[in-house]
Amino acid sequence: MNTSVKIPVGISSCLLGNEVRHNGGHKRDAYITGTLSDYFEFHSFCPEVGIGMSVPRPPIRLVDADDGVRALGVRDPSMDVTDALKTYGREQQPELKTLFGFIFKKGSPSCGMERVKLYNEKGMPENRGVGLFAAEVMKAFPSLPVEEEGRLGDARLRENFIQRVFIYHYWHTHVAEATAVKALTDFHARLKLTLMSHDQDCARELGRLAASARPDNLVTVKAAYLTLTMSTLKKVASRKNHVNVLQHIQGYLKRELDADDKAELVEAIGQYYRGEVPLIVPITLLKHYFRKNPDDYIANSWYMTPYPAELKLRNQL
Ligand code: SF4
Q1: What angle (nearest 5°) sits at the alpha carbon of residue 222, between those of residues 220 and 224?
Q2: Do residues 195 and 203 lie in contact, with contact meaning Cβ atoms separated by under 8 Å?
Q3: d(CA 305, CA 307)
């Protein structure tokens, strides 16, 4: 994995510490500006400033109106920036197309990805809105990995998002434009164990899809493959599925390990299953055995090295 190139990722500008919020402040996120900025090249967007609103500015909110959801001024409901925000989102598409992930500011009527306050006709908020800019981004790029900064505080969601960004980037730099069927089947072979950890049925379905690729249907198959892959990866990998994958990998060592080594591995996987040690423990042990007994399929497998180890994401799973 080449980690010297930073992956372009979009972000709500205030999360980088830019003072663009309606109150003139920011929402700098230390994990994003610290750890993640070593791997991601952030492209920042502030849709409200982008449509010409000032800093500071009157706050807006989402209102469930007769003609759909609208972004209106909190104090002055005649201020309607709905169309401007949607147009801004569409106008950013050429730059959005160059990105491999997006981190949105949670709760914002412009940037929130989900559960944004949406005010009903009685003026009561319900947590079922989507920020208008975020909605445009997700509609135009449905496979783009997206997440909110608040959810990145959860170890499983953080690992899930970062892994999706690395895989989506790899797809676009190695597979998307490739004209050979082999590029797709190699990609699937590499990703298979990872897919199994997210959803075994979808992993099988993707295997059938990749195997159905021929030169004359490659474009269509690849489009379907990417869509299903990204939606599968969005499902958070369960402990049970990880154990299945670990046992599957263990099977590649069945003739190489003696009884003591096997028992040690079984114990490490059991400890992970019982929540006594993090995922990195059985993975590290497996890597140790595969260093002594190399296997090309396992060595190339995304599951064994999904992102730079320095991110330490599997230490918390
Ligand atoms: S949440 Fe979005 S619109 Fe609001 S300040 Fe941050 S970047 Fe700008």
Answers
A1: 70
A2: yes
A3: 6
DSSP 8-state assignment for residue 232: H
Q: What is the pTM of this model?
A: 0.96
pLDDT tens digit sequence for 203-241: 999 999 999 999 999 999 999 999 999 999 999 999 999
Ligand 1 centroid, distance to 54 Cα (angstroms):
12
Backbone angles phi, psi at 164, to 5 degrees: -60, -40
Residue nearest (by alpha carbon) to ligand 1 atom 8? 46
Q: What average pLDDT does range 252-274 have in this prediction?
A: 96
The one-letter code for the residue type at 213 is A
The pLDDT tens digits of the residues spanning 269-283 come to 999 999 999 999 999
How far, in Å, are 92, 194, 299 from residue 302 at the CA level?
32, 7, 8
Q: Which residue's structure tokens are 């075994």?
A: 200
Nearest atom within ligand 1 for CA of residue 20: 5
Buried b (16+ CB within 10 A) or exposed e, 106-119: bbbbbbbbbebbbb
pLDDT digits (tens, 9 = 90+) for 148-185: 999 999 999 999 999 999 999 999 999 999 999 999 99
**Contact criterion met (CB below 8 Å) for 97 and 8:** no
Report which ligand 1 atom has the smallest distance to the Cα of 21: 5
CB 161, CB 154: distance < 8 Å: no
